[in-house]
Amino acid sequence: MHGLRNVSFRFAVEMVSRRRIPDGRAALGRCPTTGALATIEKVHMLKRTEIVQTMTEAGQTFALRRRGDTLEMVLGHVVLLSSAALETERAFGRLIADLAPGATRVLVGGLGFGATVLGVLDVSGPKTEVLVAEKLEVVCDLAQGGIAPLARDVLADPRVHLLRTDVGLAIARERSLGAILLDVDNGPHWASFRTNAGLYSPAALAQAREALVPGGAYAVWSGYRADAFRGKLRAAGFAPRVIPLHERGVVRARAYVGVR
To answer: Of 19, 46, 79, which marks where a domain is finished?
Structure first.
């Protein structure tokens, strides 16, 4: 997750309806009305909610809360992170084994609860350097503190280097990456924060391509079909493809991939 802006109601509906709430998620994600929020809240009303911790950054208050067995980080009533459905993110990270075999430097955009980073580590050798760009200090602090066991303590792995910066800035500094994995938004057409929209612009895609070695891979996690993004990847000089990501045996997300 990157950047902090006031979240509009339309963004709030989509963010609450995104990948991390598996029950009925696909149908709810297509409904940009109050019905989506109301339905999700009705599901959660059945579970006891416990506020574990509150944090403040850039004038915004975040809360880490527990609903049953699920841990969530919320901004207001908007779910930003959840432990309910992390399989697609871990599978996303593992894609580098096929997309960029032998990659020695990998950049992951968005730390979250650490699932994408963990997936990268699952299939990486001892000499692989995994750069993780995360702008929100509250997320970095959680991953190094209370949720470290949930994140499998990925930041303690000697292959991992945490960059407390915006992923766009991190990409701009690079020229030798084997892979770039972006897991910072709902997908390329619906940014969680308005400041993230520029990550998928033609200029940003061109910059990402320049940051990769020949044969390197750029991939974006998406909780919805975003097939038009394949055209943008192709226009930027990538060879595009789409890879389904599964949660409990069901396709819950997709990776939009471009190979240099």
So the answer is: 79
Instruction: Tell me how many degrees the CA angle 129-133-139 measures, rounded to the nearest 5.
Output: 120
Q: What is the CATH number of the domain that holds 93?
A: 3.40.50.150
* 124-127, Cβ contacts within 8 angstroms, sequence gap of 24 or more: 124/96, 124/159, 126/159, 127/159
Residue owning tokens 């208050």: 61
Strand order in the sheet with 78-82: 49-57, 60-67, 70-75, 78-82
* Positive/negative CA dihedral, 225, 228, 229, 230: positive
Residues 71 and 127 in one domain: no
φ/ψ of residue 211, rounded to 5: -80, -15
Per-residue pLDDT tens digits for 118-170: 999 999 999 999 999 999 999 999 888 878 788 789 999 999 999 999 999 99
Q: Among 79, 110, 139, which residue terminates a domain?
A: 79
* C-alpha distances in Å from residue 16, one per residue of 9, 149, 155, 186: 11, 24, 27, 10
Q: Which domain holds residue 219?
A: 87-259
CA distance readout (Å), 218 to 77, 105, 109, 144, 152: 32, 13, 11, 27, 25
Mean pLDDT by 10 residues, the chain (260 residues): 36 37 37 35 60 91 91 85 86 97 96 95 97 94 83 92 97 98 89 82 97 98 94 98 95 96
Residue 125 has which token pair? 């050798």
Tell whether 109 and 56 lie within a shared domain. Answer: no
**Torsion sign (Cα): 78, 226, 188, 148:** positive
Nearest to 188 by CA among 231, 226, 230, 147: 226
Q: Is there a domain that residue 1 lies in?
A: no
